[in-house]
Design brief:
By secondary structure, chain A is an alpha/beta fold. Chain A is 15% helix and 27% strand. The longest helix of chain A has 18 residues. The relative contact order of chain A is 0.10. Chain B is α+β, with helices and mostly antiparallel strands. The chains are: A alpha/beta, B alpha+beta. At the A-B interface, loops of A face α9 and α11 of B.
Chain lengths: 238, 362
Amino acid sequence: MDLRACELGYQALNEKIRNTDEDVVIYDCYGERFIGSGASNKTITINGTPGNALGAYLDGATIVVNGNAQDATGDTMNDGKIIINGNAGDALGYAMRGGKIFVKGYAGYRTGIHMKEYKDKKPVIVVGGSTGSFLGEYLAGGLIIVLGLDTDSFPTGYFTGVGMHGGEIFIRSSKAPKNLPKQVSASVANKDDIKGIEDILAEFSDLFGVSMEEILGKTFYLLTPNARNPYKQLYTEN
Amino acid sequence: MREGMFRNISGCAISGIFSKSGKRFSGKSIIDSIAVMHERSNGLGGGFAAYGIYPEYKDYYAFHIFYESKSAKKECEEFIEEHFDIINLSKIPTRKVPAIKDEPLIWRYFVTPLPTKLADSQLDDKEFVVKCVFRINTRIDGAYVFSSGKNMGVFKAVGFPEDVGRFYRLEEYEGYCFTAHGRYPTNTPGWWGGAHPFSLLDYTVVHNGEISSYDANRRTIEMYGYKCTLKTDTEVIAYIFDYLHRKIGLTLKEICSVIAAPFWSTIESKPQKEREELEYLRNAFASLLITGPFSIIVGFEGGMMALNDRLKLRSMVCGEKDDMFYAASEEAAIRVIQNDLDRIWSPRGGEGVIVTLEGGKA
């Protein structure tokens, strides 16, 4: 089913998506919100700029964006896949608890904050470029990979992993991380660590046509919570 | 109903368009841009600032004034006549829009300070104008000057911004810069004076967010003769810009390091010279640090600046195409008026993006 988003408005657009079992292709998208929220069992392809909360509570559907996504993509997503052939805004994968998000370009502030995992539910975010500050803030579970393909500097902002108490963050960079918060331990990822994420990296490679050789051509740093130095405070001591 | 009488909860939308070559364009595109973000407003306030729109009167201060009654108008006009030469005066042209109701009387005056009054006051002409604006806004009941710069104007009302734009016939104006705001008041009900932009002289501010430090900022700025009369937080940002830029002479970049100062831990990680500058600014103007979430677009004569709070708790996207610069709460609001962009990016928190007219100063 083909839909022209700007003619419908976000309510009618989302109603049509909900009421069909067919795959959906959306054209002329200018900020229509909540696209594919809670959706399962279909593929939604978006040409344009989808609005905030794209794929919120997604439950198994696949969303492909030919363009850039705005804020809060994949908010509290449970299952499925979001593929962004461009950049993502702030709070990507906020409180995500399952499924996968792949971003070709950069992602904004607060990528993957509050992500969590339980048994077989393990959310994954892969960002091809760099990210803003507060990457993986309060991370409780899941996997975040930042490839930094767009930069020679360390590809995240300030306060990476603040309050992190679970999960893993892999960051590809020729430069070692600096000024990490005390509750995060960083090490160079070893062969086994890389083996554990190889399938995900291969999926990114296939999706966006970046060779595995290039992806594996730099060091990966692995950030995990430092159990000996738990999270205390950030906001009141300034 | 006035600001401060009850509290209700919820975003806002902001957008700005700037031609670096100074090419004048119609106000239609800013209406199209802000309209895309309709859901970010709730109909309780919308407004625009437009620069370069009064070239035929560019040497005169343009006062835009709301009057709640004819008696307020009479009293205010007597005051203006006493202090200024009025070169031209008229109702601001509006059209009937069903969604815009209960409008006050809306008048425009092109004025210049009376030479004798100005000399008596021993002030420069901008300071004289500021004093007169505060005098009207605090002493004349039912009169409110909501725009007071040269070759620019603010247009605002209660309503959705696209309706406000049509109400003021904004598409009939041409300027080199427009900013816009769609309001979703978070603490107070909306009223005409409380809509954005807030302005003083040629400084205008549109703001998405909520200032946690409002009262500390207000107390500080009121010590320097500014009067916060509107009971809404954005007002104080306009006065902080006027104070730090016009009066103290800080650069806009320095002002960013005051109002959106980096954390001390971030300052410590900077090279020595930069660290010392940041430490100085944070210490010298500590009470003008604005905390809480904000994204703002500041308009001023010959330039525009987009800025996020240091934690970037509100969204802001910037775009460029040839000599045009765009900034908005959402990328879609830029794409809808210019889909073929040379560059699009999200500035970091606390990192002001400043554009000025080519060959101009800011």
